[in-house]
């Protein structure tokens, strides 16, 4: 059964050893990490479906999704932003980050590298200078069809994007 949840947290929103999300709609606004699986080298965060909208790092620091083990995204829609005031990412993992399916857009001052073992194409962008809050980012396929258009809520310097079957062209402006 799918479910919907809005989570506002003054510290870590979801802090677990292992976490699997199979569906539903989850909106997270957190002062620190939005999701944190916290056993070094052991924890696994798996997203199989649903929609996650994470706005983390509203305090001094915070990653969107922080796995002290592995992060696996097999499906669903994941939109994740991290703190603009610290070296945090929309995606952060001590082990592999595997993008095997779904739709992923993650912003931060830096995102951890996605594993080459991922089953879905992805792009990782690190901008030469920080995009200020209010920057418009447009991702389109090679035919000009919009894949993602958004205005940054916070400053960001790193973008990770993945969408099934997409060939991407990038344009950004402030």
Written account of the structure:
- The protein contains no helices and 18 strands.
- By secondary structure, it is mostly beta strands.
- β15 (136-141) and β16 (146-151) form a beta hairpin.
- The chain has strands spanning 4-9, 14-16, 18-21, 25-30, 35-37, 44-47, 51-55, 65-67, 70-73, 77-81, 91-93, 97-99, 103-108, 123-131, 136-141, 146-151, 156-163, 168-173.
- A seven-stranded mixed β-sheet has the order 1-4-7-10-13-17-14, with no helix packed on it. A four-stranded parallel β-sheet has the order 2-5-8-11, with no helix packed on it.
- 0% of the residues lie in helices and 52% in strands.
Descriptive terms for the model:
mainly beta, 18 strands, 4-stranded parallel beta sheet, 174 residues, globular, 7-stranded mixed beta sheet
Summarize the structure.
By secondary structure, this protein is an all-beta fold. Helix content is 0%, strand content 52%. Strand 15 and strand 16 (146-151) form a beta hairpin.
Unreliable stretches covering 5 or more consecutive residues: none
Q: What sort of overall outline do the alpha carbons produce when their principal axes are compared?
A: globular
Pattern of helices and strands:
EEEEEEEEEEEEEEEEEE
Give the neighbour order of strands across the main sheet.
Answer: 1-4-7-10-13-17-14
Radius of gyration: 15 Å
Which structural class matches the secondary elements?
mainly beta
Beta strands, count: 18
Distance between the termini: 41 Å
What kind of sheet is the major sheet?
Answer: 7 strands, mixed
The proportion of residues forming helix, as a percent range, comes to under 10%
Q: Return the average pLDDT rounded to an integer.
A: 87
Can you count the helices?
0
Strand residues, percent: over 45%
